[in-house]
Specification:
Elements: E1 12-18, E2 21-27, H1 33-40, E3 59-62, E4 65-68, E5 81-83, H2 97-104, H3 114-126, H4 133-139, H5 150-165
Parallel strand pairs: 1-5
Antiparallel strand pairs: 1-2, 3-4, 3-5
Helix pairs in contact: 2-5, 3-5
């Protein structure tokens, strides 16, 4: 005879605004924004790297500020504007200045870190931290590139910052 009782986990009903679109989700309270994006909403541009907040591959914007989606609970960002790499390009497919600069500067090799690098670069420029290569390196330091494309990444951020200033 089996006397075990199965307890179902608590489920939250949340509404997320991602890239200007509303999404309703029923999730457990412990679901991270990263897992909600990738596994529930199939927005796989945001990458799962270390899953510990160390690499920056999961960088997204919440209300215009960069956050690590692997360390952010989905329930924490309800009612806030979330932007992922899929939301940077224009509706007509026109690339964001940073995306275009990454292509022009060949600022990637394997490409795994690229979405997080681009999201951090957009924030870095918006925050006013792209005045010099040293400043770019400092404010992009939370995003790791295992391939070592850092000189090209810095060049891409510099190029995009200059284009956006003019």
């Amino acid at each position: 005879m089996n006397d075990q009782v199965t307890i179902s986990p608590t489920t939250l009903s949340i509404h997320l605004t991602i890239n200007g679109r509303e999404h309703a989700l029923d999730i457990e309270p412990r679901v991270t924004l990263l897992d909600a994006l990738r596994d529930r909403l199939h927005l796989t541009g945001t990458k799962k790297g270390c899953d510990q907040g160390q690499c920056g591959a999961c960088t997204v914007h919440v209300d215009g500020q960069r956050v690590l989606a692997c360390l952010t609970l989905a329930a924490q960002v309800e009612g806030r504007a979330i932007t992922t790499i899929e939301g940077l390009a224009g509706e007509d497919g026109t690339l964001n200045a940073v995306q275009a600069a990454f292509l022009e500067q060949d600022a990637f090799q394997c490409g795994y870190c690229t979405p997080g690098q681009i999201m951090s670069a957009v924030a870095c420029i918006r925050e006013g931290h792209a005045g010099s290569d040293e400043e770019i390196r400092e404010y992009m330091a939370g995003n790791l590139c295992r391939c070592g494309a850092y000189p090209h990444i810095v060049a891409a951020v510099r190029q995009a910052a200059q284009e956006l200033r003019s």
